[in-house]
Amino acid sequence: MKGLLSLGPVxxxxxxxxxxxxxxxxxxxxxxxxxxxxxxxxxxxxxGSSEWPEGHPSDAYYSPEVVRELxxxxxxFEPDLVVLEVLWTHHYIDPLxxxxxxxxxxxxxxxxxxxxxxxxxxxxxREARLRRASLAERLVxxxxxxxxxxxxxxxxxxxxxxxxxxxxxxxxxxEVVPNAxxxxxxxxxxxxxxxxxxxxxxxxxxxxRFGYPPNAIAARFLVEEVLPRLWERxxxxxxxxxxxxxxxxxxxxxxxEPRIEVTGPVPEVAPFLARxxxxxxxxxQGGGTRLKVLEAFAAGTPVVATRKAVEGLDLMxxxxxxxxxxxxxxxxxxxxxxxxxxxATEIAARARRLVRERYxxxxxxxxxxxAIRRLEASARVSVSGGQA
Length: 388
Known about the structure:
The protein is an alpha/beta fold.
C-alpha cells in the first residue's frame, strides 16, 4: 500500500469482509467493500474446496454486482492502473482492462504448479486424487490465461519469478515484490510487562492457518513425530499451535496432553513468538514466501525448518535458521537451541537483520514503486503523479 501511495492517491475495494472505516492514512481516497450480500458466503464456501466437477472455486469470487461497482469507481476515481490481489480475482481482469487501464496482478503464489504438487500428495482414494488433479489442471489454464492478460505480474520471490517464466512463458513483465513486514511490531512486550520475554519452559511454536492442508500436515507431524522424541530429551518442552482452523486431531491431542496448547485464532502472533524459544516449521508442501518464517525472524525467535519451508528465501543454513528434515533432526535441533542459547541468539540476530534488510515495509515499498516505474517506462502506462 505504501508503495502505491508514494505514487499518488489510492482507491481500495474489497470483495467481502474488512473494516468499514479506512485506515488513518493520507492518500486513501476510496475505501469500499462490495455491496453484494451473498459474495462473502460464496467465497467462504469455495475456499479449499475440491468438489468442483466443472469450473473452479475462483468462480465464486465473481459477481456482476462487483463489476458494476468497479466500473463506478473507475468513472469517479479515474485511476491510472489497477492492482488485482491474488489469482482468485482473475475474472475482473477483462472488465477492468476494457476501461482502458493496465492491470497488475499481485500473485501471492504460482498457484497452478503448487496445486498439481498438492493434488499428487493429497490423502484419499483414487477418485479423490483424480478430482483434485483435474481441478489443478483447470487452475493451470486459468493462471496461464490470467498471466497473459495482465500487463505486469508481481510474485513474492525470485524462485517464483523463474517458475512463472518457465512454466507459462508469459510475455507480461514479472516483478519480485516480497511480502512485507512491520518488523518493529514483532519485537514483543517490553521486559517487566507482566510476563517474561522468553518462556522459562522450552516452548516451541508453530503459527499458521491450519485449514490450509500443508499447515495441518506440519502440525500433525510435530504432534505425532517430533514431540515424543523431543520429550525424551526435554520432558518439560511445550508446543503451541497458534492460528485459525485447528484440526480435530490437534484439538484432541491438546485435550489429552497439557504440554500441547491449541490457541485458535489470535489477534496478534507476536506475543507468542516473543515468548517462545524456537519456531518449528516442518513444511513439506506449499508455495509462496514463507510469512510464518519471516514473522519468527522479525520477532527474534530462532527457526528450525525444512528446506521446503524456506523455499524462495535467500537464507544460509546454520546462519539464519537450522535445517531439519526428519523428526529426529527436529528434536535434536530444538534441544541444541535450548541448551546453547548463545548460538540460538546469534542465529536469531542474523535472521532479524536479514528480514529488516529485505522484507521490511520500507524495502517492499521501494520494490512496488520501482515495479510501477518500470511499467511506466515500458510505454504501457503513465502513472507519474497518478492514481491507483
